[in-house]
Amino acid sequence: MTHEPTTTDGPAYATLPPDGGAESPESKRNGLQGDAIGLVGATMLGIVIMGPALAVLFSWGYMIPSVGRSTAVLFIMGLALTLPTAYSYAAINRRMPSAGAIYKWASRLLSPTVGIAAGFCGVFFYGFIVAFTFPLQAQFVADLFRNSSPVLFAVIAVTTLLLALPLTYRGVSLGLKTAIIMTVIEVLIVVLVAAVAFFRSGTGQVSLEPLDPTRLPGLTTLMPALVLAFLAYTGYDAISTIAEETKAARSLIPKATILSAVAVGVFWVVISTVLSNALSPEAYQAALDEGGFPLGAAAEVAFGETGRVITDIMGMEATFALTLGAFIGSTRILYRMGRDGVLSERFGAVHSKFKTPWFSITAITAFVVIVDVVLAFYLSVSIDISLWVVNAVAFFSMSTYLLINVCNPLLFLRRYRTEFHWLWNGVIPMTGIAAVGWFFYKGFFDALWHVDGKLGRSTVWVCLTLLTAIVGVSALISRRPGVKEAARSEDSDDNVVTDNAR
């Protein structure tokens, strides 16, 4: 529900319409579209950003050279290592849900400077996901038409952006519903491909080998595949950013966070088991050697030449769904920072009709265009843009996850000390820090540092430079009068409070 403020002065209530016209009485209400999302919608946002079909296409496929059939057990291990951080998100949201998410939590529990820097990291995290999707979309279309023209690649990327923006600007309900429908379709396509390939392959077998941990190789061989399994779960945390648009956020957001991670994990375990039993590892490896995807090999067994078309279409609509979901996560943090007055009040502006943070959406769009254009000149107009960006996503997601696990025990030690529990607020977040820290090192620093060229070590330097700039800018912003108090301010005017006061 919306909340009528006692005053409309100041950045906290900025709702400037994009056409610069006069504010209507409705536009003076408290920001975003309250009560727009229920448990299913919130859960699906996390699932959309984790990309269930894209993970099968990429993560599962590239696990095979390391572990053969034993892919399902890796998704179980990835889920087990993800749940501590997911629980930290849930625990914090149960006490202080906010569209600002990590920005508000770190500001209150650590310091405003750290919180502002964390907010920027969150924006970069989701913003880079959006930037990742457009070159990927273009690659799927290029593969569908067997045309590698850079001009076609650029046209498709721009067209995808132009299609996504109206859905993003016109409200969280429309954008999220569209993304959910497309995600359901992609899941059904993957299920169909896996089932038909299993029965048509002639070599399909009913075996628990994909679930058998004793068949896993040594740690050195296992690590690349385990990193893929862990990173596949990135994105469930975006649910936190829709707190002000969600019904009864204190109870719903924590449930949706855990449900999304578990639901998509179960899906990956089941599908990878079926696919690993449908064809031999050698057949999938042959597809990789030819520059294709193992899922494409299964689709070809299932539907012949049409299988390649089905895989490309699935990739296209799965990528578009990811675009819509990531736009939501990236813009809500900027919105909250603008509403608090930490950034320009325009970032907190909400469209008078659609109740969306239109200026923040525009800012993220500009960021995405700049990133993809700069990388196009640096790397060429190709899928290499997405490969570079996905490493940046890993960097900023891991940075955010580390802070979340620090905030969990601090919240209870400083504000709810009598409720502090050695397991839930001690062991679990420490396990989360250990897991995230390990994969941060192995999956980003160690993996890229030993790779020369534009997709390797240079990515590490760029991300570290960006982080240094973020810290410096955050320190300067926090020196402005009133900024520290604004960043630490409680959400007494948020929908999340009025919802839970009923």
From TrEMBL:
Membrane topology category: Multi-pass membrane protein
MF GO annotations: transmembrane transporter activity
Coiled-coil regions listed: none
UniProt GO cellular component terms: plasma membrane
Superkingdom of the organism of origin: Bacteria
TM annotation in the entry: 36-60, 72-92, 113-136, 148-167, 179-199, 219-236, 256-275, 313-335, 356-379, 385-408, 420-439, 459-478
Region spans: Disordered: 1-29
Alphabetized InterPro entries for the sequence: AA/rel_permease1, APC_superfamily
Keywords, ordered alphabetically: Cell membrane, Membrane, Transmembrane, Transmembrane helix
Subcellular location field: Cell membrane
One matching Pfam family: AA_permease_2
Family membership noted in the UniProt record: Belongs to the amino acid-polyamine-organocation (APC) superfamily.
Task performed by this protein: Probable amino-acid or metabolite transport protein.
Protein name: Transporter
Species name: Mycolicibacterium agri (Mycobacterium agri)
Lineage: Bacteria, Bacillati, Actinomycetota, Actinomycetes, Mycobacteriales
